[in-house]
Structure formats: structure tokens, C-alpha cells
User: What shape does this take?
Amino acid sequence: MIDSVLLALFLPCLGMSAIFIVYMCLLWYATTHRPQIAMPSKPAREKGLSASELEKMPKVTGKELVMGSECAVCLDEIENEQLARLVPGCNHGFHVECADAWLSKHPLCPVCRAKLDPQILKPCENPC
Ligand SMILES: [Zn+2]
Ligand SMILES: [Zn+2]
Assistant: This one.
């Protein structure tokens, strides 16, 4: 008889405690995790160009370079007959190998840090 009385008192107590603990946990969770709800925006995409994107970049010879003929990657001269890649937009030129090595890692011009937008390398699909 005493057993069942104790049980009758103990069980609701246990239930209340459990609810209280869960409630406290939720409260703690909400307070500690709240700052993370406002997720910081992802760091800017620092992915270089893919091989196919590199292929779309204009290729010129050294004598066609308008912004000087020194390659800023290897600091060597781009000879008149040497092939160079031209950065669309800023028209800076680099040896094909140098440009490919750099641009496959960084999507920007090594001279003026102009962002290389893969969009401008895509052929215009709509009649502009
Ligand atoms: Zn070079
Ligand atoms: Zn540039």
C-alpha cells in the first residue's frame, strides 16, 4: 500500500522533472545557438577557372598586347611571336602557361586584381 502511494507521488515528480529538464535544455539550446541562426554569408568563391573556361579566354600573340608585353606572372617578356592570354575586361596579357597556371587557382587578373567573371567568357546566348 505504501509502495503504491510513493509511486503515485514519485511518478508525477519524475514527469515534472523530466519536462523541466527538457525545457531547460531547449532554453539553453536556443540561447547558445541563437547567434548561429544568422549564418555569416559564405566566403567569396575563390575558385579558379576550369580548363574549359580557360580555353574560352582570348589568345593573342605578344605583338597584339596593348597593355605592355611583360608577363606579370613570370616577370619575363612576352615575345612578339609568343602566344599570350588576354584577360577580358582589363586586357592584361600573360604567357598562356602562366595565365593558365594562375587563373586555374585565382579567378582574377594578377596585375590589376580585376575579377574574372566566368559569365563574360560564356558565349552570349540571347541576341544582345
Ligand atoms: Zn609568363
Ligand atoms: Zn588586369
Notes: The pocket of zinc ion (ligand 1) is lined by residues 71, 73-74, 76, 94-95, 98 (CB under 6 Å). Strands lie at 59-61, 83-86, 93-95.
